[in-house]
Model the fold of this input.
Amino acid sequence: MESAVNPTETRWWWIRHAPVPDGGRIYGQRDLDCDCSDAAVFAALSRELPGDAVWVTSHLVRTQQTAAAIRCAMGGHEFMEDPRPLRELAEQHLGDWQGLNRKEFFVSRGSDRHPHWFGPASERAPNGESFIDVVQRVSRAVDLLSSECAGRDIIAVAHGGTIRAALAVALGVEPEGVLHYPIENCSLTRIHCLGGAEAAARWKVVAVNQRPWAEGAAATAAGPLRDAPPPA
Done:
């Protein structure tokens, strides 16, 4: 385990929630439970994470369940700071698309189907959000927490869209560009903020979509990025 030693460096440990038994339907911000039964996954994650960290989740139950499973695997979780649920870290609100059959939705999109997400970053779901909207709200939360918790480790259990939004902030790229990054369930993405919110443009991306439980000879040869999972 590591702990922050540079007071000007704030280290974000982003983890996507555990798999959701969704019945093949788009869930977005639907508040569904997740499956935290794979103890080996949480044991592997627990060995990667710092013990003295600020914990945050989204307000959705699947991130809170995942955080609880990780903390249990770490042991001594009763001495850790309680996770802070933040609505700003929620998945993209997919509006009227939520609850639709995922396969039928993509078929209905025809030639307009996006290769990695439900639509282009600029497209706002009916009665919902665009991915650009997500980047804007996540950016505000990341800047605020990086300032409040400067010099500390922040473990953020969130969603695929949230983590891609954090990457857009760190890399300084257009939101569309980060939709190409796979963010698998329970994967770890590490991003360091150098200097707090007042120097928000100075970021270091350490790892993306890391899967500690699968890191053997084959996983190492394949590299840190894997095929993208089905969208949320």
